[in-house]
Amino acid sequence: MRLVRKDFPILNRHIDGKPLIYLDSTATSLKPQMVLDAMDGYYASYSANVFRGIYKISERATSCYESARERIARFIGAKKKDEIIFTRGTDESISLLYYSWALPHVKADDTIVTTIMEHHSNFVPWQQLTKSKGVTLKIWTTDANGELNLKDLDSLITRKTKLLALTAVSNVLGTVNPIQKIIGIVKKLNPACLVLVDAAQAAPHMAIDVQAWGADFIAFSSHKMLGPTGFGVLWGRRELLEDMPVFNFGGDMIKEVHRDSTVFADLPHKFEAGTPHIAGAIGLGAAVDYLSGLGMDAVREHEIEITSYALGKLSEIRGLSIVGPREAICRGGVIAFTMGGLHPHDIAQILDEDNICIRVGFHCAQPLHEYLSIGATARASFYIYTQKTDIDALVLGLHRVKKLLG
Ligand code: PLP
């Protein structure tokens, strides 16, 4: 996988004379030249609006925009491209579900289940339903290893459960949840219970097949999988999406408007009001082509190798404590840790002197940190361009931190 590094222009640049050691791909990934070229190509050569123009460059923009939808659908195993709704990212995809599915469908007597390891984007909307609708929220907690016990589902899922909203991969613990198994159990316990999978940390890193999973909705973000920021996807089963009211109003999401009535567009356009992020779709289309070219099994294999190496090296640092599963095979390419009483912000600041980029804080998963009874954590995360020498640099940097602050 080392060969891919040449495809990422930012890795060929130095900052203050030093190379970039980028270990924050869980926050956002770097972008390969192929994605930059695809987006630049749109702006430079055919930057017209979609669906509206009866002229060549507009028709080309429409065709590239819809071709991206088709390739993204294939990438996640969706049956039809119409089930792919373009959004601004995972947050907006889940918010869309909150407004268009949950508010009209969920009643005071219903229950929603989520997990303690969720990013706020898949936690806060369901928590808010307890306030706006009086819904009961059950929170599935992890064992000491940071993993969910599937036996808990027997008590969590009842006839009253309307939705299980869970992440495929934790952005802090790194835990990879066995989504297909979980959904299989849930549907046996209550076939009417829908399952929303937050795939923000799965879609970039492993092969996804929404049909095999048996999911009802999944959400993910372009910028974590080599694509541009401000763009993402909500996938849903067609009959569910068709049954949901529109989310935003505006152009292109309507078929007809009269003085007293409006006929909304069909899927997916009824959820995509206004001029969309055309370059975003084209960029994500190029990103999924790039990832498919590498092969998602190879992507995952590289991630396990780097994570395994990092787990070994970091465990050798005295006083450093890693959260989440011990085995690389059970986790994504992310390692959150604490170092005794050292403040993570101080750690990150010292590492930054050598251009080593890590993330510190709660990583938008504050309930998880409270559950683990820890304050902020430092987090190093990896992707296809991460090499073992990046991990070596991190380890050296952490020894330097200890010398300076310890
Ligand atoms: N879900 C998970 C698991 C994440 O890691 C993130 C971002 O870090 C999100 C949701 C939110 O993604 P975005 O900010 O792209 O909407």
Would you give an account of this structure?
This protein has 406 residues and is an alpha/beta fold. It has two domains: 2-23 and 295-405, Aspartate Aminotransferase, domain 1, CATH 3.90.1150.10; 37-292, Aspartate Aminotransferase, domain 2 (3-Layer(aba) Sandwich). Helices cover 38% and strands 17% of the residues. The chain contains 13 helices and 17 strands. It has helices spanning 33-45, 56-75, 90-105, 124-132, 153-156, 179-189, 210-213, 238-243, 278-294, 296-315, 344-352, 366-371, 388-405, and strands at 14-15, 18-19, 21-22, 84-87, 111-115, 136-140, 161-167, 194-198, 217-221, 232-236, 254-257, 262-264, 320-322, 334-339, 356-357, 359-361, 377-381. The strands form five sheets. Strands 4-10-9-8-7-5-6 form a seven-stranded mixed sheet, sandwiched between helices. A four-stranded antiparallel sheet has the order 13-14-17-16, with helices on one face. It has a two-stranded antiparallel ribbon with strand order 1-2. α7 links the parallel β8 and β9. α2 packs across α9 (278-294) and α11 crosses α13 (388-405). The radius of gyration is 22 Å and the shape is globular. The two termini are 36 Å apart. The model has no long low-confidence stretch (mean pLDDT 97). The structure holds pyridoxal-5'-phosphate. Pyridoxal-5'-phosphate (PLP) binds next to α3.
Which helices and strands appear, and what pairs or packs with what?
Elements: E1 14-15, E2 18-19, E3 21-22, H1 33-45, H2 56-75, E4 84-87, H3 90-105, E5 111-115, H4 124-132, E6 136-140, H5 153-156, E7 161-167, H6 179-189, E8 194-198, H7 210-213, E9 217-221, E10 232-236, H8 238-243, E11 254-257, E12 262-264, H9 278-294, H10 296-315, E13 320-322, E14 334-339, H11 344-352, E15 356-357, E16 359-361, H12 366-371, E17 377-381, H13 388-405
Parallel strand pairs: 3-15, 5-6, 5-7, 7-8, 8-9
Antiparallel strand pairs: 1-2, 4-10, 9-10, 11-12, 13-14, 14-17, 16-17
Helix pairs in contact: 1-9, 2-9, 10-13, 11-13
Bound molecules: pyridoxal-5'-phosphate (PLP).
